[in-house]
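Q: How would the structure tokens look for this protein?
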Amino acid sequence: MNHRPLAVLMLAGALLLSARTTALQADNAAPGTAGGIANTAVAERRMDVAIRTELERLRQREQALDQRELELKTLSAEVDKRLSELEKVREEVSRLTQRKDEQEAGKIKLLSQMYERMEPANAAAVLAKLEQQLAVEILQGMKVKAAGRILDNMDPASAVTLSRSFPALARD
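A: Here is the predicted structure in token form.
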């Protein structure tokens, strides 16, 4: 809660007290002048009404500010809650992606072992029909000698293309 309006209320009260004190002093300074007393009383009432009006306006403003502060706290809590939920989802997606990558790596390793055991000419014919990235990953999972025999059984253009892809995969 902001206490500035409270300070303004206290200041307004002090001004009211000061105005009344000044009016009483004016009454005491000029005894017997009925016009001075009447003018002072009217001025005092006007000031009292003005101060009360200002105090009411400040009270209403303070209530509006308190309401706004409550709304902001509620919104902030909602944002924090959603951020927390998003972080949990992000962590879950990251975990699932890592799990998927590990499964794919396991499958490629298994494929590498299978192609390594095949006749080099048959393996070369099948690898030539696969997507380039998959073929390179399978070759990378093999022993160098087996991969060399398979590349030796491919047509030269396919062997060059796959060979050039090795450094590109290392950069990814």
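The helical segments are 4-29, 34-117, 120-129, 132-140, 144-152, 156-171.

The two ends are 55 Å apart (CA to CA).

Upvote if useful.
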